[in-house]
Automatic annotation (TrEMBL):
Name recorded for this polypeptide: FAD-dependent monooxygenase
SUPFAM superfamilies, per database record: FAD/NAD(P)-binding domain (SSF51905)
Domain of life: Bacteria
Domain FAD-binding: 131-319
Keyword vocabulary terms for this entry: Monooxygenase, NAD, Oxidoreductase
GO molecular function: monooxygenase activity
Alphabetized InterPro entries for the sequence: FAD-bd, FAD/NAD-bd_sf, PheA/TfdB_FAD_monoxygenase
Amino acid sequence: MSGPGVRTVAVVGGGPAGAFCALELARLLPDVTVDLYDREDRGPGAGIVLADEVARQVRAVHPEALRLPESAYATWDETITSIDGERIPSGAFGMSGISRHVFHEHVRTLAARRPNVRLIRRTVTATPEPADLVVLADGAGSVLRQQRAEQFGTSVTAGATRYLWLSTPTVLEPCFLIKEFGPGPLVVHAYPHAAGESTFIVEADPGTLTALGLLDRPAAEAERELATIFRAELGGAPLTARTAGWQAFRTVVNRRWSAGRTVLAGDAAHTVHFSTGSGTALAIDDALCLARSVAAHDDPLDAVAEYDSVRRPIAERMQAEAAESTAWFEQFCRGERLHGHQTVFALRSRRAANTFSRLRERDPEFVARTVARLAGHPTDAEPVDVPLTVGRVRLGHRLVALERRDGRCVLRGADGTQAVGLVVDRTPDGLLPGIDFLAVRARPEGGRVTRSAPAARIRSQSGLPIALLVDEELPRDEANTLIAAARTDLVALP
Ligand SMILES: Cc1cc2nc3c(=O)[nH]c(=O)nc-3n(C[C@H](O)[C@H](O)[C@H](O)COP(=O)(O)OP(=O)(O)OC[C@H]3O[C@@H](n4cnc5c(N)ncnc54)[C@H](O)[C@@H]3O)c2cc1C
């Protein structure tokens, strides 16, 4: 039971954060009255992906939250990445697609069935009064948070790419589609989210969209044009935009998650780029933690302080990881050269946990094919042991010692041959006579090189082999990950 401090809670926003907060409060505190406000319109978005792991955790607490007819889901274990027509399968390890609208409406309705929860369909424009605790769960664009931005220490940063969240009335295989168009690629993340419907998110650099005449077109024309560009992949099905035109992803950060008895949850508190597919899980976990803290403390301010101390570090960690994923996509959308399997490996390993050894454990066939492409033939060797010729030097492995002097490096072969490298921090202009490779510095943190380090871009733009100069020895697994993903060709020993 809660203490006398909380008798009434106003929750603004009936997405996963708000609805799960109401559900959990109702479960733990039947004496507390919860007003759950949600605006009447449907809101943006087509389908979302939930990992099986997340679904299991949700079912353990609120099994009814995922009890929907089978036709409301699509499930898969493999994703196809199509790079300019080449189809490369890789494991997705247990995923479900579901309509965002159907899922949100379902959990909202469940919450409203609890005797102590009242669902109020209204757009809230000012903090509802009076309530002992106010939860702002009104999403990334939270109007009520913006009204108190200074108190929350809010910053909102727009990403460099633009995306359009579309749906199509057909069942697509889960896939990444990468289509090169000169100025840069169009990257599509598509997956089914119901028996007869799929999500189709198109992401690209604004320069690419402008060059294709897509950026400033009315949504209906952009839909038609995209349906034409992807006619083969869509089987001729149409596309419908589920956002009001092209959007920049907004990363929301709040230095404080509470102001007195008003507290932030879900996307109102923090956003993580959709390429990580984890925004819904974070919103649900916030909600469960907040409700449990309220139930555990007499004073709502203690509850809010506990919630903040538990959830904020987790969200910050996820945001740091998502920032790397975002930066990788942004760099990629600016027009990195495509390397088939290695690009797919880079896509898969952009998250810290997905190292070479982990991916090999989970999807040995995909990793074996990636290394075979690197070597030019099937091999049991790891990427660091795949031979490479740089200039006239034939190397049997890729962890190398370099002699460094005056901004240059020399790589010596066992047979007395040598190759000359230039140390750079950006892509050099023009030709470089006498230079066989480029050496790029990277600063590993905790044995990891950030996935958006400039080496990959310089490699892609210059077409020359890259040696990564690191100031600490890299774990072999990390070196394998970087080479398999075409982020570098060699790793220089410090
Ligand atoms: C393109 C894209 C793809 C994504 N894909 C995935 C994915 O695959 N997997 C995943 O886990 N996450 C995904 N996400 C993120 C996910 O949608 C969010 O993280 C999640 O919905 C956050 O839940 P929330 O309850 O905090 O906010 P929201 O889901 O935004 O809910 C906010 C609610 O508040 C209501 N509201 C807003 N303002 C008011 C107001 N003034 N008055 C009353 N009600 C109001 C809205 O109607 C809405 O119901 C994606 C996001 C984007 C942009």
